[in-house]
Amino acid sequence: MGDIFNLDNKFFQTLGKGVDCVCLSLLWMICCIPLAFGIYVAYVSKAIILALPCIVLAVPAGIATTALYYAVNKVIRHSRGYLWSSFWHSFKTNMKQGAFVTLVVAAAVVLVGLDGYIMYQFAKAGEKSGVLYVVFFVLMLVVIAWAIYVFPYMARFENSTKLILKNSALMAIGNLPKTFMALMFFLACCIGTYLLPVVAIISPALGMLLLNYILEGVFERYMSDEDREAENERNQEFYN
After folding, report:
1. In sequence order, which residues have a C-beta less than 8 Å from that of residue 97 and are 6 or more positions away?
2. Per-block average pLDDT, block size 10, for the chain (240 residues)?
3. Nearest CA-CA partner of 145 in 172, 166, 174, 122
4. How far apart are CA 76 and CA 239, in angstroms?
């Protein structure tokens, strides 16, 4: 009976990680408020030109996504460090580089999305050229798959901005089965959150945790034996 009230048992550990996921998700959503506002204004006004400011408004969200992956990997998955300090450490450390990376990724998403929307409107109007919206839809999936790697890569490795953008793309291409799995899982999380908005209080961090299991398997392939061994030692400290 005494083990039921032991704070180190599996139930309380799982409960604690669930609470951590909620806290991280809320932190991430706060950072996404500017982007959410920009998307809302563009949607309500139905003026596609107003989608362009979302490129800049996405900057806090992009930096926060890097911090979210860092905190999920370090605190929730491997029980190292503290939630708040880990999140903001990554946020501040990657602020400058993360801002530029986010601008590049957001510009790709917005421009491809706008072209696809315009082509779709042409298709609805009966224009033959409108069929190109299918091409832009596929291209959007490619950009999203790339973005899925970009922010976690920045959270896990120190590199130049150019190499972050390049290497994350090469990883996505070089690991197509896992990239496809990560993309399908990401889309499922987005659709699930859209259909049941209440899960947004936990889905960002929980979804990132599950993506972490996919992406870490990829990242480990590109780590040296020394780095991999040091990483394993740090992760085992909590359990010893």
Report:
1. 154, 161, 164
2. 53 75 94 95 87 94 97 90 91 95 96 90 81 90 96 94 95 95 94 92 93 93 75 58
3. 172
4. 14
- Torsion, CA 186, CA 192, CA 195, CA 197, rounded to 10: -90
pLDDT of residue 1: 44
> What is the token pair recorded at 146?
């790339």
DSSP 125: T
Query: For residue 10, how far is the Cα from the chain centroid?
Result: 28
194, 199, 205, 209 alpha-carbon torsion, rounded to 10°: -90
Whether the CB-CB separation of 128 and 76 falls below 8 Å is answered with: no
| Nearest C-alpha neighbor of 238 from the set 118, 78, 48, 94 | 78
Helix (H) or strand (E) holding 75: none
Tokens representing 180?
């496809």
Burial class (CB in 10 A: 0-12, 13-18, 19+), 1: exposed
Regarding pTM above 0.85, the answer is yes
CA atoms within 13 A on the CB side of 44: 6
Residue 21 contacts residue 76 (beta carbons within 8 Å): yes
